[in-house]
Specification:
Among the domains are: 327-424, Thrombin, subunit H; 492-619, 7 Propeller (Methylamine Dehydrogenase, Chain H), CATH 2.130.10; 628-745, Immunoglobulins (Immunoglobulin-like); 766-852; 857-994, Histidine kinase-like ATPase, C-terminal domain (Heat Shock Protein 90), CATH 3.30.565.10. The longest helix has 72 residues, at 747-818. Helix 3 (747-818) runs antiparallel to helix 4 (825-851). Strands 1-28-27-26-25 form a five-stranded mixed sheet, with no helix packed on it. The protein has a five-stranded mixed sheet with strand order 70-71-72-74-73, covered by helices on one side. A four-stranded antiparallel sheet has the order 2-31-30-29, with no helix packed on it. Strand 9 and strand 10 (119-122) form a beta hairpin. Residues 1-31 have low confidence and may be disordered. The termini are far apart. It is of the alpha+beta class and 994 residues long. It is built from eight helices and 74 strands.
């Protein structure tokens, strides 16, 4: 890697002298824990690992200069720029941003301005001998004037033109500049200058160290307007017109490592980048951060506090580091813990933290140091869980049984204490100071120096929780089990908890919280018996939950297979989840089972696969706060908009079209957007709406893209809002666009159509009147033809009903004549047949005569005629006939003679078939008038049924089908051997009513 090749040789020599052999003062604090510094490096997309400078634009994007190019970070993605994109040189010495969002860079080849589309370059006059043309620092004044320094000169730009500033001693090296409020501060070796109103005042820096040459590396104006000087000889400030060393606890800060960069965070503390890590200065303390506690031992060339309060460090070789507060600290291998696999955590009354590791044994963390506790055996046991109970530390192992430690070790195994197994899965101390121990094949209760087995089948017990004075729940591989008065029973909730595999339990008031291995967290209310499932569908990053613990503010903390989550409930009872992962500087993303403990001060320790994490609830911590929302793309039917006639111009940074006007058929639009937050994009929530559509705001979600299809023509404004989880501060983006109304939907087109409709209406009315006259003539003709048809069909009916029967009577009469002289059964039978046929002839004649009466044309009378026929037919039989329907209102419906006759004949045939063949005990007839005057008649019997395929060959069914055709209706026959028969007839009743 390349190092400080861009710093002038003279300054490098000075730095080399002061970077080595410097001792820290007594007020200097070094922590034994690891702090959550988030690293952004080449693997994250950074163009090069040697970062030289930092700046933030008005939208919130972080700009990073490196010796290999320029990078822009929006909290989620990194965009890189090199000479191929227009840079003068890939080495960037300095970055500044003006009020318009233009990016100014200084490098070996001069000054450049980048507006998102193009680079504009400013040639530096070659008026100096050393490093000609190189720009080492760029600053933007409050009036948007851009200032830059070369080796020994200062320049400024106004309205696109570069100008040279005449300064004193123009041949010596300028190490720093600071413009603002009409002043320009600049520093040369040992002297600070204030240039204003064409005058220059100078201030010599007092020497308080053995360093003979003092260089100011950076100026900083703090929140109160005081100017600070970060130098190679300590921290100085300009106050009351003089330059003086800064004191901490009455001791001058002149024995620090060389200060290379400086920033002030949101709490007012100062951060300094040095040649080996960083220093944080508060009103009363000084703290050092390097590789041992999570940062870097490399040179930190630049520091910056962003608009959310995060502090950034540009390192020479490891990219960027972000510090967002000390809400989490950590213990891992860099802190002296030999193993990162922390399987168990426990604490004694003194606050000492015991750490059980899977492959390195037992440790204690106290007074800021990690110490090993040596087991008495040669083989170090694999520790699975820890619990401090009754003055002893209980240690569960994998294969080495149960141990206690109170200054000395005691071992318990299956061979000497009849334990279910030498593998321990969990510990739990109940309110009665009884210790419950889980095994892969059961559970044991320890009380009064003795072990008592719990009557369980051979199943794994992963956790315990007390839910009453005499009740205890156990999570097992077979679900939740209730232990009550030495009796085990299944604990059923009738919720999702019954089908999930529980791993850990905790209780918050009347709420049972269940961490599962397959369905996230389940909150079960022991009073209302209702459950709430919280998993990847509504905010968790993993459905495997290893640990659950409540904090002092009634939040639930869940250690999962991917990160740590804080869960709270909104007023509406919906989960509000805050995620902590690598973006918050957490190295151990996967928690270990039951490896968690809450301390007396409310802090929480988590055991993970990469050390132990310590959550400090009252420590200062920056929270995600989106600075702005940017529209990243607008697409039609999933494609970029290529037709330039649809818009006026495009955005410089994302090429998003402005003043978008789309044809009405181009109405499938996808919007992609992103809120710029440098803290953590994973906890940002969005909602959106389109003004102009009758639709409400969408629900809050992490989705940053939405598609609207089939948008009608109109003027719209797409709005998207963003907030961080748990925050009420909103950012909003508005994007207006239009879908052009086609001519056929304009006002003029409607007027033309209206006029055409009026003319068409007049023409149609004329045509209707003509057709009405023709229709009346045609109806008169049709009535005559209909009467002829009725007479013809009436003749056919008389032929069918009377002619055949008369013929039959004649035949029987002839037979009677031949046998007139005989007396016996035959004669009686013949006479009987004559009587039956004569009766049938009479009945048929009566039906015809009944049909010819106009008073019998109503639907009500026709249906009752069929009903009466059915009652008479089944009167002296074993079959029950049931008729349902025929409301009095149906008298208003009139059926033509032809329709009524065919309707009666269809069901006479059907009822006769029921009597003759069905052998049914019940025959049921139902009538109903459905929508649009459709009459439906259903005849069912519970008889023996018949084969429809063979039956359709018979004359009876054929006749029924023919008559149904005359009704313009539909006839369905459903039957089968042994399942009875159902006949359904439906047809439309003529619309004319009486």
């Amino acid at each position: 890697m390349q190092y400080l090749s861009y710093i002038p040789i003279s300054l490098q020599r000075v730095f080399a002298l002061v970077f080595t052999g410097i001792l820290l003062s007594a007020s200097f604090c070094v922590s034994a824990q690891r702090y959550p510094f988030y690293n952004l490096n080449v693997e994250s997309g950074l163009i090069q690992s040697q970062a030289t400078c930092l700046a933030q634009d008005p939208s919130g994007n972080l700009w990073i200069g490196t010796i290999g190019g320029l990078s822009r970070y929006d909290g989620k993605n990194i965009t890189n720029y090199t000479v191929r994109n227009g840079l003068l040189n890939n080495m960037i010495h300095s970055i500044a941003v003006d009020a318009h969002g233009n990016i100014w860079t200084g490098g070996p080849d001069g000054l450049s301005e980048f507006n998102g589309k193009t680079f504009k370059h400013y040639a530096i006059p070659f008026i100096e001998k050393s490093n000609p043309g190189q720009v080492f620092e760029v600053r933007v004044a409050d009036n948007d004037t851009v200032w830059c320094r070369t080796y020994s000169n200062i320049y400024y730009t106004i309205k696109g033109q570069i100008h040279h500033l005449n300064i004193a001693d123009s041949l010596s090296f300028i190490s720093a500049i600071l413009p603002g409020n009409g002043h320009l501060w600049y520093a040369k070796e040992g002297v600070v200058y204030d240039h204003y109103s064409k005058k220059t005042d100078s201030f010599r820096i007092p020497v308080t160290t053995p360093v003979t040459r003092i260089f100011v590396s950076k100026f900083l104006k703090d929140k109160n307007g005081m100017i600070w000087l970060a130098t190679n000889a300590g921290l100085y400030k300009i106050q009351n017109g003089t330059v003086s060393i800064h004191y901490l606890n009455n001791k001058p800060l002149n024995d620090l490592p060389a200060l290379i960069s400086i920033t002030q965070d949101s709490s007012g503390a100062f951060w300094f980048g040095t040649n080996s890590g960083a220093i944080r200065l508060t009103e009363h303390s000084l703290q050092y951060y390097n590789k041992k506690n999570g940062l870097s031992d490399n040179i930190l060339n630049a520091t910056l506090t962003d608009k959310e309060g995060n502090v950034w460090f540009a390192s020479d070789g490891q990219g960027l580091f972000r510090y967002s507060g000390m809400q989490f600290t950590g213990l891992d291998e860099t802190m002296g813990l030999p193993s990162a696999q922390v399987m168990g955590i426990a604490a004694n009354e003194s606050g000492d933290i015991f750490l059980g590791t899977y492959d390195a044994g037992l440790f204690v963390f106290k007074e800021g140091k990690v110490e090993n506790i040596t087991f008495p055996s040669e083989l170090i046991p694999r520790i699975t869980t820890l619990q401090f109970a009754n003055g002893k530390l209980w240690i569960g192992t994998r294969g080495r049984g149960l141990w206690t430690y109170d200054g000395s070790f005691t071992s318990y195994t299956t061979s000497d204490h009849d334990l279910p197994s030498n593998v321990i899965t969990s510990f739990y101390t109940d309110p009665f100071h009884r210790l419950w121990i889980g095994f892969p094949n059961g559970a044991v209760m320890y009380e009064h120096d003795s072990f008592k087995k719990v009557p369980l089948n051979s199943i794994r017990v992963s956790d315990f929780i007390t839910i009453g004075s005499d009740s205890l729940l156990m999570s097992t591989d077979n679900g939740l089990k209730l232990y009550n008065n030495s009796v085990i029973s299944a604990f059923k909730t009738n919720t999702a908890a019954d089908s999930s595999v529980p791993e850990c339990l905790t209780l918050l008031h009347n709420e049972l919280w269940i961490g599962s291995s397959d369905n996230g967290v389940i909150r079960y209310d022991l009073q209302t018996k209702k459950a709430l499932v919280i998993n990847k569908n509504n905010g968790l990053q993993s459905d495997f939950v290893y640990t659950l613990i409540p904090d002092n503010e009634n939040n639930i903390w869940a250690g999962t297979g991917y990160g740590i989550h804080k869960i709270s409930l909104s007023k509406e009872g919906q989960p509000v989840i805050t995620f902590y992962g690598t973006g918050q500087g957490i190295g151990g993303m996967e928690s270990n089972h039951k490896s968690v403990i809450k301390m007396h001060d409310g802090s929480i320790w988590f055991g993970t696969t990469n050390g132990a994490l310590h959550y400090l609830p009252h420590s200062a911590n920056t929270m995600p706060r989106p600075i702005s929302i940017v529209m990243q793309s607008v697409k039609l039917f999933g494609e970029n908009i290529s037709d330039t006639t649809y818009y006026d111009s495009t955005d410089n940074w994302y090429n998003v079209p402005y003043n978008l006007r789309l044809p009405y058929r181009k109405n499938n639009i996808t919007f992609s957007f992103h809120a710029v937050s440098l803290h953590s994009g994973s906890s940002l929530l969005y909602r959106y709406i389109i003004d102009g559509l009758d639709a409400p705001w969408s629900a809050w979600s992490a989705n940053s893209s939405v598609t609207y299809s089939a948008l009608p023509p109109g003027n719209y404004v797409f709005k998207v809002q963003c907030m961080a989880a748990g925050s009420k501060e909103l950012r909003e983006l508005q994007y207006p666009f239009e879908i052009i109304t086609p001519f056929q939907r304009t006002r003029w087109f409607r007027l033309i159509i209206l006029a055409a409709c009026i003319l068409l209406g007049i023409a149609m009315q004329y045509t209707v009147n003509k057709r009405k006259q023709r229709r009346e003539q045609l109806l008169a003709k049709l009535r005559l033809e209909e009467q002829a048809k009725i007479r013809m069909r009436t003749a056919e009916d008389f032929h069918d009903e009377v002619g055949n029967k008369i013929t039959r009577i004649n035949v029987l009469t002839n037979v009677l004549k031949n046998k007139i002289g005989k007396v016996g059964p035959d004669i009686n039978r013949l006479f009987t047949q004559i009587e039956e046929n004569t009766g049938q002839l009479y009945s048929g004649t009566q039906d015809i005569l009944w049909s010819l009466k106009p008073s019998n044309d109503s639907l009500y009378e026709i249906l009752h005629r069929i009903k009466d026929f059915g009652n008479d037919l089944f009167e002296d039989t074993d079959t029950e006939f049931i008729f349902i329907g025929a409301d009095e209102k149906w008298k208003d419906y009139r059926l033509p003679l032809d329709m009524s006759r065919n309707l009666i004949m269809i069901f006479k045939e059907a009822l006769n078939n029921c009597l003759k063949y069905s052998k049914a005990s019940t025959v049921k007839m139902e009538t109903n008038i459905k929508a649009k005057d459709i009459l439906q008649i259903v005849l069912t019997d519970n008889g023996v049924g018949f084969d429809i395929k063979n039956a359709t060959l018979g004359h009876g069914i054929n006749n029924m089908n023919i008559r149904t055709g005359r009704l313009n209706g539909r006839l369905y026959i459903d039957s089968g051997s042994g399942k009875g028969t159902m006949i359904t007839l439906s047809f439309k009743i003529p619309s004319k009513r009486g």
